[in-house]
From TrEMBL:
Protein name from the UniProt record: TetR/AcrR family transcriptional regulator
Signal peptide coordinates: none
PANTHER family in UniProt: HTH-TYPE TRANSCRIPTIONAL REGULATOR RUTR, HTH-TYPE TRANSCRIPTIONAL REGULATOR RV1816
The HTH tetR-type domain, residue ranges: 13-73
Length: 242
């Protein structure tokens, strides 16, 4: 049994939560680049010097927001995939994940802007944001790996090209995290599969960026249905059939 938390620790958790909630609200109204510890301090009725005891800089606050938002988005994707009872139905898992990611992003436009919008000038995300930032793509790659382990293949696999090296970091990441259960793929096929999976991941957030930043207006009548169509096309490109 974990030791009981002290009243001081509980109070610190409460105040930290209030600061993060205020900062997240300001992401929606002011945007990430304009986030200010002074403004957040006013929101929680604290002097700015007191807020610095919880977050020593704006960058520290941005990092905490990134980790929390990426964590929530990753949890939404993981839960959606886990919620598909028939684990062999990789198309259903794929579509459920896309839909869950969209639901979270539409419900949290300010946080989406922080994660996938214009970079904040002068801020560089530290290494401890990498793991939460890759949770969604790990879900997608696991689904692809399960589909390939069951025999799925792309409809057409182009001849090996000199661009194979462009996905070397992704191949290393997949191997490091054990995201594909040794599918029977040739040395030419595996990089091609990884390329297509990366295209799907970037297309997912590209479509969501167009929707949330207003670029689909006048082109698409139903963004939710449009994402479903994109998801299924991307799945078919990987050889995952609904």
């Amino acid at each position: 049994m974990s030791p009981a938390r002290t009243a001081r620790a509980l109070a610190r958790e409460t105040i930290t939560r209030e600061i993060l909630d205020s900062a997240r609200a300001r992401l929606g109204t002011d945007g990430a680049a304009a986030l200010s510890l002074r403004a957040v301090a006013r929101d929680v009725e604290m002097v700015s010097s007191a807020v610095y005891r919880y977050f020593p800089s704006r960058d520290a606050l941005l990092t905490a927001l990134l980790i929390e938002a990426y964590g929530e988005l990753g949890h939404a994707a993981e839960s959606a995939d886990a919620g598909v009872t028939d684990r062999s139905d990789t198309a259903a898992r794929w579509l459920a994940t896309f839909r869950a990611v969209r639901r979270w992003c539409v419900a949290h436009p300010g946080e989406f802007g922080l994660l996938y919008g214009t970079p904040v000038p002068g801020y560089a995300a530290p290494r401890d944001t990498v793991d939460p930032a890759t949770r969604v793509v790990r879900v997608l790659v696991r689904i692809v790996g399960d589909a390939y382990a069951a025999g799925a293949r792309p409809p057409v696999v182009p001849a090996a090209a000199a661009t194979t090296g462009t996905v070397a970091p992704a191949l290393a990441f997949i191997a490091e995290h054990g995201l594909m259960a040794e599918p029977d793929l040739s040395d030419d096929e595996l990089p091609e599969v990884v390329r297509r999976a990366l295209m799907a991941w970037t297309a997912l957030f590209g479509v969501l960026s167009f929707e949330l930043f207003g670029h689909l207006v006048g082109s698409v009548t139903d963004p939710e249905a449009w994402l479903d169509q994109v998801a299924l096309r991307l799945a078919a490109d990987l050889g995952i059939q609904a």
